[in-house]
Amino acid sequence: MIAFGNRRGSAFLSLLGLSLMLFIWRSDMVRAADATAAKPGDFQKKLEAALKNKPASCTIVYTGGTLAMNVLENMLKDIYKNDDYLHYSTREYRIATSTDGKRTTVKYTFTYWETQAQSKQVSSKVDEVLGKIITRGMNDYQKEKAVHDWIEINLAYDTSLKEHSAYAGLFDRKKTVCQGYALLAYKMLSRAGLENRIIEGTAGGRLHTWNLVKLEGKWYHLDTTWDDPVPDVAGKAAYDYFNLTDDQIRSTHTWKKSPSYSEATVPFDTTLMLKEKSDPGNAGFYQNLKKALGLHYLEAAHTAGDAVGLTRLIERAVKIRQPSFTIRYTAKSTLAADLKKAASGFSTLSAYSYQYSSFARSPSKTDVLVTITLTFRK
User: Do domains 117-293 and 297-376 have the same CATH topology?
Assistant: First the structure.
């Protein structure tokens, strides 16, 4: 009996942080055996050892009888669970089996987003970069930010949707899609000593990958793709998707609950406040990071929820003739009317305009960040 199976590795095509997964089914004939195994556990170990070298194909003869296709696929899935980089740099795999009832010949055929030689180049480059951006005495928070910032500044999003690897992001065109961003973040964070996973789900309604990072026992979502502007802005690093909880990132991202994905439940602003007190030697770093993440917008001085509050903030800007300012507004539905009412009380203003965006770190889904621009009379 001969059976064929094929499963596409997680392959993503992304546009503006959004992605599309494709599934392709093929088959192939088995050939001569490369190894033998008498027990399922031994079979899986031999397969895992072979995959470390990213072979184009691997054939193993199982001498313990038959192995069902679902068992073979589950073995491969188990291997991928323990190696996110191998998993997400594998483009496609095919499985073909032949059995006489006493032994089963299994051939795996693989294609990859990057070759083994290219993966080694990625590792070498990552070590070189980490040697420059990670310094002695850095804690995990500082290491994570250094990795995040380097990726944002040095990679660009591939709007042609052709490149999916970390290699493509580091070499050649230096552009890649979400899969490449997540792979590079995974490699850099891991080599810097930070436990992390690649998580797959949807963002903005399309399939997407990003990372989960563990810091002192707490997990956070880190999306380096969505923190990188499109089109690319040289030297620009955003922090909108830096260390979010499950609840915070769910406004734009979704994923299936899995034992592979630890829950992220502790808001990062709470963590930073505690670190600022427990690690005073690095207080300046935590304070600067809070500002970069926009956490100061959670403070009363930068928050309003009605026309009275807006009037107070506009008055403050008028006194110093500040042309624009950004605040957190807690009543999105009445923003336009409240702002019109507040601005009408200032004779020194000839016009005003505003724009707003979501603020994932806010405790309420009705909160938005509002940038108000004022035009003063001459």
Answer: no
Q: How far is CA 71 from the centre of its chain?
A: 31
- Residue 255 CA to residue 158 CA, distance in Å, equals 23
Q: How far is CA 372 from its chain centroid?
A: 31
Q: Are 339 and 352 in contact (CB under 8 A)?
A: yes
What CATH class has 297-376? alpha beta
- Domain 117-293 -> CATH class: alpha beta
Look at residue 230 in the predicted model and tell me its pLDDT: 81
Phi, then psi, of 107 in degrees rounded to 5: -120, 125
Q: What is the DSSP letter of 207?
A: E
For residue 226, the surrounding DSSP H or E stretch is none
For the chain, the structural domain boundaries read 2-112, 117-293, 297-376
- Rounded CA gap, 217 and 103, in Å? 46
Residues 6+ apart with CB under 8 A from 351: 374, 375
Distance separating alpha carbons of residues 274 and 30, to the nearest angstrom? 59
Residue range 25-69, pLDDT digits in tens: 333 333 434 689 999 999 999 999 999 999 999 999 999 999 999
Contact 364, 251 (CB under 8 A): no
Measured torsion, CA atoms of residues 32, 38, 39, 42, in degrees rounded to the nearest 10: -60
DSSP 3-state of 296: helix
Q: pLDDT band at 365, cuts 50/70/90? A: confident
Residue 294: predicted pLDDT: 94
Contact yes or no for 123/30 (Cβ under 8 A)? no
Is residue 108 a contact partner of residue 95, using CB atoms and an 8 Å limit?
A: yes
Amino acid present at 159? T
Q: Distance (Å, rounded) from C-alpha 357 to C-alpha 32? A: 60
Omega of the bond leading into 231 within 30 degrees of 0 (cis): yes
In whole angstroms, how far apart are CA 359 and each of 194, 258, 327? 27, 27, 11
Q: Are 369 and 326 within 8 A, CB to CB? A: yes
